[in-house]
């Protein structure tokens, strides 16, 4: 049984610094909002190893009022009025029971022009779809990898996964007035032929954001030959010509631009001494809090409340990793 941790404002745990929950600012007008981790599916290609067979030690959830308060602070600092708040996570965002209130709260900030969400759709009911629409959700990025019934079950790692229900769901999303983007991952040897998915996308007036399968250190690794970016981009260009649909998407297609980012507090090589506030994702990780940033320290099995010293090894996008000293 994995430990589940609720992060509340009174806990004084920063929401910047980890990719597991909170807010990720990559120096653009798009903010990634992560309220919860965990997933009801068990995709064989999962880049973060979520789902029933996950080897991760913990899941995390952020109190909605605290998350909204911190999002507003970040937006105020960035000084831009065309923010896209993208609700995603290491897993499935619709596991979050306060997801409708999260969307409502984001909609109350006039600097947020677009609210989008990544989802695999298995928890999206008709009632919830209507509530999200009324709350102000603008776009759903639906993870659907194939229209083949059997292949879909294999890729999702779930024998109950029903691609026909996903097709019906996509149609309902499109008719609801929420913009729809289908986001398949091309896994070599499994779903390289997606012509039928492209035809379906056109029939429901959806964009396609096709992704390339990549293996990651802490994700699930398949015994397949990964495509190069050259091969993948040529594949998309061929499909574009064949179907007359734009498939090679760029930042400009989503009005993404570089803007002021939250300041990087620490430098690589800097030593930090702080108390452990949370266990990490893995058994040899913990999280410490310092200067309003959360830092993941690997190589430690100490407990919450213990003081440790660590050396910063990574700071990109305000995501901090450190090694135990």
Descriptive account of the structure:
- The protein has seven helices and 16 strands.
- It has 325 residues and is of the alpha/beta class.
- The chain folds into two domains: 3-254, Aldolase class I (TIM Barrel), CATH 3.20.20.70; 271-324, OB fold (Dihydrolipoamide Acetyltransferase, E2P).
- Strands 2-3-5-6-7-8-10 form a seven-stranded mixed β-sheet, with helices on one face.
- Helix 1 (64-78) runs parallel beside helix 2 (99-107) and helix 2 runs parallel beside helix 3 (126-135).
- It starts with a strand and ends with a strand.
- 37% of the residues are buried.
Annotation keywords:
16 strands; alpha/beta; about 325 residues; OB fold (Dihydrolipoamide Acetyltransferase, E2P); about 25% strand; TIM Barrel
How confident is the prediction overall: mean pLDDT? Answer: 96
Range of helix content: 10-25%
Radius of gyration: 20 Å
What is the helix/strand order?
EEEEHEHEHEHHEEHEEHEEEEE
Total beta strands: 16
Q: Which stretches are low in confidence, meaning pLDDT under 50 for 5 or more residues running? A: none
CATH superfamily of the largest domain: Aldolase class I
Give the domain tally: 2
What is the level 1 CATH name of the largest domain? Alpha Beta
Largest sheet, in brief, is:
7 strands, mixed
User: Looking at the structure, what is the overall shape?
Assistant: globular
């Amino acid at each position: 049984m994995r430990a589940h941790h609720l992060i509340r404002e009174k806990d004084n745990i920063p929401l910047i610094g980890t990719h597991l929950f909170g807010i990720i600012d990559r120096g653009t007008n798009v903010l990634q909002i992560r309220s919860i981790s965990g997933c009801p599916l068990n995709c064989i290609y999962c880049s973060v190893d979520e789902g029933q067979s996950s080897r991760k030690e913990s899941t995390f959830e952020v109190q909605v009022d605290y998350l909204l308060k911190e999002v507003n602070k970040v937006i105020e600092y960035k000084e831009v009025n065309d923010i896209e708040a993208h609700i995603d996570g290491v897993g499935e965002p619709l596991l979050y029971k306060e997801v409708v209130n999260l969307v409502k709260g984001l909609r109350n900030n006039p600097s947020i022009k677009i609210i989008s969400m990544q989802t695999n759709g298995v928890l999206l009911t008709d009632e919830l779809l209507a509530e999200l629409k009324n709350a102000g959700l603008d776009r759903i990025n639906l993870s659907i990898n194939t229209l083949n019934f059997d292949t879909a079950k294999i890729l999702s790692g779930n024998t109950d996964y029903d691609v026909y229900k996903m097709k019906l769901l996509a149609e309902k999303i499109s008719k609801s007035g929420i913009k729809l983007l289908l986001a398949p991952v091309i896994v070599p040897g499994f779903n390289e032929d997606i012509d039928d998915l492209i035809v379906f996308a056109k029939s429901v007036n959806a964009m396609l954001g096709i992704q390339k399968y990549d293996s990651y250190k802490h994700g699930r690794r398949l015994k397949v030959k990964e495509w190069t970016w050259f091969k993948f981009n040529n594949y998309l260009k061929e499909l574009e010509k064949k179907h007359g649909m734009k498939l090679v998407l760029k930042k400009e297609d989503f009005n993404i631009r570089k803007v002021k980012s939250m300041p990087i507090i620490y430098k690589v090589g800097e030593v930090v001494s702080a108390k452990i506030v949370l266990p990490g994702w893995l058994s040899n990780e913990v999280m410490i809090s310092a200067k309003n940033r959360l830092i993941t320290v690997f190589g430690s099995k100490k407990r919450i409340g213990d003081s440790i010293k660590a050396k910063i090894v990574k700071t990109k996008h305000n995501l901090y990793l450190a090694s135990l000293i």
